[in-house]
From TrEMBL:
The active site is at 253 (nucleophile). The gene is Asah2. This is Neutral ceramidase. Zn(2+) binds at residues 93, 202, 439, 478. Binds 1 zinc ion per subunit. GO terms for biological process: ceramide catabolic process; long-chain fatty acid biosynthetic process; sphingosine biosynthetic process. Its cofactor is Zn(2+). GO terms for cellular component: cytoplasm; extracellular region; plasma membrane. It catalyses: an N-acylsphing-4-enine + H2O = sphing-4-enine + a fatty acid. Residues 1-507 form the Neutral/alkaline non-lysosomal ceramidase N-terminal domain. One of its GO terms (molecular function) is N-acylsphingosine amidohydrolase activity. It comes from Erythrocercus mccallii.
């Protein structure tokens, strides 16, 4: 094959924008722990015209808006080379990245509308990573390996999983998929290019009290792998690209100690995930570490170490033709042939009451509980008044789900949920990547993989490796099995196209697999094109106004100085007169907020040893009154740090009025005093 890899920043605004994932309006960005990246991999046939692009981006999920804008840019740059059928865009599902890049109304509620800078950063970052991969195409080889990851996940809805038939459950040793699948890419001389790992776990080691933008456990795994391979480079630099992509993570949590009542400390591992005192709002899962930062590192390191082992031992080469199949489908109206006599249908999208309960990884508001199969007259009445009552048809279609939001019947100012959804498979030789538009649960993913594998087998393409890539192309929440759907925990309440959603997807992906096996992808109907709404900038983000420094101070001045000396495992900390970090995001796509620098006696100069993409640094912004704000930079000095003289620097932009109508952004910087590490 010809192989190309690329990585580009897609962080966007790190302040004032809500974070995407927990749907908690209080959880707004207030700084940076680690940068977010888009990682792109292009594989092409040396002679033929076939190629496949796989992108994994450190974002909550790929939205339809992001996908349509990326495809538009690729079309104008490359013509028909990169298209909706051969480009897969997947989100890692970190819950600590900026929100606001959606065109469907439901997602605006907790995102403060459509946040253009966030959307722009993601789209441009994805396109740039593809550009870099495109420019770096070279002859190469791909190897595949798989293995088991231990101590890194639990099923967070085990009572739903137990609803699946016993005969089916008996075939599996665990209620989560522990398998990791790894692709290793090298050039023809054996130089290492990159890796893609697929593993099913929610990147929710950082909980909903976090305000620092970061890529969570899988992002930490990428960071460790890239630091290891790009020796001597700063984080985010260097040619080796390591993507840790999402899979069927719907019911899989990294918070391995399981659910406990925050107030009493007793277990709340029950069908309602509810506590005797305080109800569901008190039931939260704990990770393996003492705090969320440590848990993120422990889970990330586990994933990294397994990937490293599988990567180093990968010897099975991937060979064979490339192909891709794609369709747009109206998921609110699919007829599914269950057997010779039975046809069922999917529904217009709707969310059930338990959607509002959240999960043990991030509890909901107003004390909704999981496992609600009856509505609540109080909330139903409020909903009927505000948003309109669901139609009888939708109610009947979704049974036994009690509908909280009938999103498929809500169209103001734009539809609340998508009807048109992408289904897509890309095959690289013996590997089939199923790009799915949401979060399949463990058992849903197993059924889908098995169905696609048997479809390939029955058309003569035997021994395919089938992997699910999660959160691709458009976000449609969760996909549970029919049996899991009946007990209506969070994942089931969020299976928006009704009880037969999974059966519909299995039918559709079988059709794609058959087309690939029979070399008939050209004959697949394209399906109805998704809409691109003309979204006016509806945003509740505060506007960027003129900023001030305190009296007798200027931007970048130190307010609280570092100590004169530190030891390893201590935290060096400095506070500056700061400015809104959004100014910087709107000025430069790749703004670095901080550096850690070490003084070199040999060259009598300062050398940058860390930047803001490092997991050892934390950048906090806090807004004061009268246009003033502070920035605090922390360096958590790791064991093994070279002794010597160091300093911390800060780079920002402030807004200044130059005339009645004109406000400009002015760059500035600040530095701590020098300090010793002993």
């Amino acid at each position: 094959y010809l192989v190309g890899v690329g990585r580009a920043d897609c962080t966007g605004p790190v302040a004032q924008v809500p974070l995407m994932g927990y749907a908690n309006p209080e959880q707004v960005g207030g700084g940076l722990l680690s940068r977010l990246y888009s990682r792109a991999f292009i594989v092409a046939e040396p002679e033929g015209s076939s190629r496949v692009v796989f992108v994994s981006a450190d974002i909550g999920m790929v939205s339809q808006r992001v996908r349509l804008e990326v495809l538009k840019q690729l079309r104008s740059k490359y013509g028909a080379l990169y298209r909706q059928d051969n480009v897969i865009l997947s989100g890692t599902h970190t819950h600590s990245g900026p929100a606001g890049y959606f065109q469907y109304t439901l997602f605006w509620i907790t995102s403060k509308g459509l946040v253009r800078p966030a959307l722009r950063s993601i789209v441009n970052g994805i396109v740039k990573s593809i550009d870099i991969a495109h420019e770096n195409m070279k002859k190469g080889r791909i190897f595949i390996n798989r293995g088991t990851v231990e101590n890194s996940q639990i099923n967070r809805s085990p009572f739903s999983y137990l609803e699946n038939p016993e005969s089916e459950r008996k075939r599996y040793s665990s209620n989560t998929d522990k398998e990791m699948l790894v692709l290793k890419m090298v050039d023809e001389d054996g130089h290492e290019l990159g890796l893609i790992s697929w593993f099913a776990v929610h990147p929710v080691s950082m909980n909903n009290s976090n305000h620092l933008v970061n890529s969570d456990n899988v992002g930490y795994a990428s960071y460790l792998f890239e630091q290891e391979k790009n020796k001597g480079m700063l984080p985010g630099e260097g040619s080796f690209v390591a993507a840790f992509a999402s899979s069927n993570l719907g019911d899989v949590s990294p918070n391995t100690r399981g659910p406990f009542c925050a107030n009493t400390g007793e277990s709340c591992d029950n069908p309602q995930s509810s506590c005797p005192v305080g109800g569901a709002a008190m039931c939260m899962a704990k990770g393996p570490g003492n705090d969320m930062f440590e848990s993120t590192r422990i889970i990330g390191q586990n994933i990294y170490l397994k990937a490293k082992e599988l990567y180093e031992k990968a010897s099975q080469e991937v060979t064979g033709p490339l192909s891709s199949a794609h369709q747009w489908v109206n998921m609110s109206d699919v007829s599914v042939q269950l057997n010779a006599t039975h046809t069922v249908k999917t529904c217009k999208p709707a969310l059930g009451h338990s959607f509002a309960a959240g999960t043990i990884d991030g509890v909901g508001a107003f004390n909704f509980t999981q496992g609600s199969v009856e509505g609540d007259p109080f909330w139903d009445q409020i909903r009927d008044q505000l948003l309109g009552e669901p139609s009888n048809e939708t109610k009947a279609c979704h049974k036994p789900k009690p509908i909280l939001f009938s999103t498929g019947e809500m169209t103001w100012p734009h539809p609340w949920h998508p009807d048109i959804v992408d289904v897509q498979i890309a095959a690289i030789g013996s590997l089939a990547i199923l790009a799915v538009p949401g979060e399949f649960t463990t058992m849903s993913g197993r059924r889908l993989r098995e169905a696609v594998k048997s479809e390939f087998d029955s058309h003569g393409t035997r021994g395919m490796n089938v992997v699910i890539a999660g959160l691709c192309n458009v976000y449609t929440h969760y996909i549970t099995t029919y049996e899991e759907y009946q007990v209506q925990r969070y994942e089931a309440a969020s299976t928006i196209y009704g009880p037969h959603t999974l059966s519909a997807y299995i039918q559709l992906y079988r059709g794609l697999a058959k087309a690939i096996a029979l070399n008939a992808t050209q004959e697949l109907p394209r399906g109805p094109e998704p809409p691109l709404f003309n979204v006016t900038s509806i945003t509740l983000l505060p506007s960027l106004s003129v900023e001030n420094a305190p009296a007798a101070k200027t931007f970048g001045d130190v307010l609280q100085e570092v100590r004169q000396e530190y030891r390893e495992r201590e935290v060096a900390e400095v506070t500056f007169v700061g400015a809104n970090p959004r100014n910087s995001a709107e000025n430069a796509t790749e703004h670095n907020f901080l550096t850690v620098e070490r003084y070199s006696n040999i060259s009598s100069s300062w050398r940058v040893v860390l930047n803001d993409a490092s997991w050892d640094t934390r950048f906090y912004w806090s807004k004061g009154s009268r246009g003033q704000s502070n920035v605090t930079i922390e360096w958590h000095i790791p064991a093994g740090t070279e002794p010597g003289v160091y300093r911390l620097r800060y780079f920002g932009h402030y807004k200044k009025r130059v005339s009645f109508l004109r406000i400009i952004s002015v760059p500035f910087e600040g530095s701590s005093s020098a300090f010793q590490i002993t």
